[in-house]
Every structure is written in structure tokens, then in C-alpha cells.
Design goal:
There is one protein chain. By secondary structure, the chain is of the alpha/beta class. It has a single domain, classed as L-arginine/glycine Amidinotransferase, Chain A (5-stranded Propeller). The protein has a five-stranded mixed sheet. The chain has a three-stranded mixed sheet with strand order 2-1-16, covered by helices on one side. The chain has a three-stranded mixed sheet with strand order 8-9-12, covered by helices on one side. It starts with 13 loop residues before the first strand and ends with a strand. The relative contact order is 0.19. GO terms for molecular function: arginine deiminase activity. This is Arginine deiminase.
Length: about 325
């Protein structure tokens, strides 16, 4: 991993390397337990592990280098990590933006250990690229709430797990990385809107797939020159040459939480509705790679949540 050079300024450029984590070795035995830990259904860890292996195989088949951070934990941390039921959702723990890695901050105390585990490794592996947050963050900053629109603009949700205080605290760092616009949307605090990538995703160089209700939400846009302006969602992304493909009917996790491997290829849950892609002229010719991850999705996240891109190249 020491030869890797983290770099991401797009959601669709060719994925070269990615961080993942296997699921916990602990079963979620019944629906009552699942609901109490904010999962959707009970989970069998053996099935979940098999599906994680299949996900990694699909990535490897596309020549994506896989880094399982959990393989490098010291023994006490590894013993604890195996019991952390959310550790497979690595997207939240950090974010590669251009040539910089920023650490996340857990929006719920249950997830704090996995943040510390992975970030302690990133500091060592990528000491030049890893940048500490300049200010003390006391509230959540989870990167499932961030979409890189292009080299100039990023869109961040402040809602259930990421606070507006945290985003405003890092604005100067985001501008220093090289972004000229930081757009903030504030979605309702529900299980269906836990993170931004459960509500919209970039599916093509100029197409964003989004739940239809997002059209009603204003976006607050910060720039270096002005504190902020307001735009409606569709107006704002059109300024950045995106069409919005509004979805009236959807299954939140499998339909929206997919992963772009490159501009032509998408990794998609076998539970996803393929008609969403087939019905759009710019998406119907995509190379769709289906992967069975439904046991993993019961934890409340999808393929995008389970993958942290380290390197995307044009």
C-alpha cells in the first residue's frame, strides 16, 4: 500500500484502489436486536462474509486494488474490530479529495472505534496526504454525506450524521484543497435519509440519480468570494452540467447506493431495479456488474457505503 498515491476528484473516473472491511463476526440474531442497533433485519455473519468476498472478487476482476485495513490492525484493536457491527461501512471514516485525505468524525458514539482504527493506519501509510482537521470537531462529519461533483465543487448533506457546524469548521480546508464551491443541503433526519448517498448518486459524467423529493430542497453554496448563495437542487447541479434523473419509485439502498468503477461500468446490487438504468438513454448502455450483497445491505448501507476510493484516475 505504500506505493499508492491517493487521488480522487470525481465519482466516475477509473477506480484504481479502494479500502474495504469485512463484516463483523457477530450475528444480529433477530429483528428486535436489529432495530435496536438501527439495522433493517437480522444478519447471519457467515453469509455476510461470503458476500463481502464476492464483492471483493468483483472489484478485483475490474483490476481494482483492494486494501482491507482490518488486516493491519494490532492484536488488541483487531480483537475489538471483529466485533464492531458497522465496520464494513468504510465510506464514512475518511475521504480522499484530490490529493488530500481528510478524517471523518463519527456521528454516533457506537462507531467511534472504527474511525480511530482506520485513521491511525492512514496517518502512517499516507503521512503526506493525510491532513488533520484544523479545528476541534465535536459533532459528526461522516463522508457518506459527501459527493464530489467535479474538480471545483462538492455537495455535502448536513443531517442525521453530519452537522452543519462540522462542515463550516472545515470550509477553509476544503477551499485549500482546491474546491471553489462547497454546497450544503439539509435533508430530514430519518433512517431513509441517513446519508446523502442514500438519496442521490452520480451515475454518468452528466447525470445525477436522485429521489424526487430532493427537488424541493434549497442548497446553500459557499465560495471564497462570498459567504453563500442559495439555489434549488436542480438549478445548482445544472450549473455544473448535470442533468437530474428524478426517481419517483425506488428501493433506497440497492437502487441508489451503487459504485462507479469507471465511466462505463457500475457495480450494482442484485436487488436493484435495473429498469432505473434501462429507462434512461444515457444509462441504458452502461456495463452493469451485479453483486449479491443483500445480507450486507441489511445493516443499512449499500455497495458505495462499503467502499472507500483511494485512487481514481481519468
Amino acid at each position: 500500500m505504500y506505493n499508492l498515491r491517493p487521488h480522487c476528484q470525481s465519482e466516475i473516473f477509473s477506480l484504481r484502489s479502494v479500502i474495504v472491511s469485512p463484516p463483523s463476526v457477530i450475528d444480529i440474531p433477530n429483528l428486535k436486536a436489529a432495530k435496536e442497533v438501527q439495522w433493517n433485519e437480522p444478519v447471519n455473519h457467515s453469509i455476510a462474509q461470503e458476500q463481502h468476498n464476492n464483492l471483493c472478487h468483483a472489484l478485483s476482476e475490474e483490476n481494482v486494488h483492494i486494501l482491507r485495513y482490518t488486516d493491519y490492525l494490532c492484536e488488541p484493536d483487531a480483537r475489538l474490530s471483529k466485533q464492531l457491527i458497522n465496520r464494513m461501512f468504510v465510506r464514512d471514516l475518511a475521504c480522499v479529495m484530490k490529493d488530500t485525505i481528510l478524517p471523518g468524525h463519527a456521528g454516533t458514539s457506537m462507531r467511534k472505534p472504527e474511525y480511530d482504527h482506520m485513521q491511525s493506519l492512514l496517518r502512517v501509510w499516507f503521512c503526506d496526504e493525510f491532513k488533520e482537521i484544523d479545528v476541534q470537531i465535536s459533532q459528526g462529519l461522516e463522508f457518506g454525506d459527501l459527493l464530489i461533483l467535479n474538480r471545483d465543487a462538492i455537495l455535502i448533506n448536513v443531517g442525521a450524521r453530519t452537522s452543519v457546524h462540522s462542515v463550516k469548521a472545515i470550509l477553509k480546508q476544503l477551499f485549500a484543497i482546491g474546491f471553489s464551491e462547497i454546497a450544503i443541503i439539509d435533508l430530514p433526519r430519518t433512517s431513509e435519509t441517513l446519508h446523502l448517498d442514500m438519496n442521490c448518486n452520480i451515475a454518468h459524467e452528466d447525470v445525477i440519480v436522485a429521489k424526487s423529493f430532493l427537488r424541493f430542497f434549497p442548497i446553500q453554496v459557499y465560495t471564497n468570494e462570498k459567504d453563500y448563495n442559495y439555489y434549488m437542487m436542480e438549478d445548482y447541479v445544472r450549473r455544473h452540467q448535470f442533468e437530474v434523473y428524478w426517481l419517483e419509485v425506488y428501493n433506497t439502498i440497492p437502487d441508489i447506493n451503487f459504485l462507479n468503477i469507471n465511466p462505463e461500468t457500475i457495480l450494482l446490487s442484485t436487488k436493484a431495479n435495473r429498469r432505473i438504468f434501462n429507462d434512461h438513454p444515457k444509462l441504458r448502455n452502461k456495463n452493469i456488474i451485479p453483486v449479491e450483497v443483500d445480507e450486507l445491505e441489511k445493516g443499512g448501507g449499500g455497495i458505495r457505503c462499503m467502499t472507500l476510493p483511494l485512487e481514481r484516475r481519468n
